[in-house]
Known about the structure:
alpha/beta, Rossmann fold, 289 residues, 15% strand, six-stranded parallel β-sheet, globular
Amino acid sequence: MAQLLAGAPVAEALCARIRAGVTLLRSREVTPTVAIVRVGERPADLSYERGFTKRAQSLGIAVIRTLLPEDVSEGELIRVLEDISGNCRIHGCLLFRPLPDRLNTSGVMGALCPEKDIDSMTSTSMGGLMVRGAAGFPPCTAAACMELLRYYQVELTGRNVAMIGSGMTVGMPTAILLMNQGATVSVCNIFTDPARMTELCQGADVIISAAGKAGLIGREHVRPGQVVVDVGVSPGADGKLHGDVAFDEVEPVVAALTPVPGGVGAVTSTVLAAHTVEAALRTQGLALE
């Protein structure tokens, strides 16, 4: 039976670090503040906004919301982000994506200064993944994967990792973060031959899947001793959310496995809060312990 790598204890440990950072900031009369910018009323955005707002406020982080209509002009949205960039009392910004197709997403996100980009929305932040210590932050889901691996003391240096998915939100940034930890990373995408993907997975010490395809990773992909991190979430025919990993097939074989739900997703919003506090601390020349 595999060890379940639950996200809740990871999030709670991160919350303890966040609270310490908030206390330090308050001693300097600084309240860490995040701006949420939402265009339209997508149910998924509303749900995430409620959950994150509740988590942030419970940690002592102030939340400022800017709610814009679906037909907001590109110029108005850019103005909002420029105002946030210029407001020294706001330390981080979360802009819900995707934006409406009619808007130039890269142009809009470029209006936000990297120092307040807590979810790697700007090209500067994404490029900063290649340079340790650069302004900005990695995407929250990618950072959540790393927090989970760190909490459960999964050794990465010198280990082989199969990264399934090469998207800019999870797959590619996670691969870069893993390489920064000394891991040897093989990245698979939709063009990877299935037989080759199976071979790479079987040869890996750690498998991380973020393809968003239910049941993609089955018994044939795994072997005893592996750690499997399931980031993918997609609706199944039963109406429930499922991960990329066929849990019932993989769990009896591997050493450790994240559940879906309750794994990486349980850490992501807490990482966003941590990035907000870290951004505030940086303005004081400090860092999150």
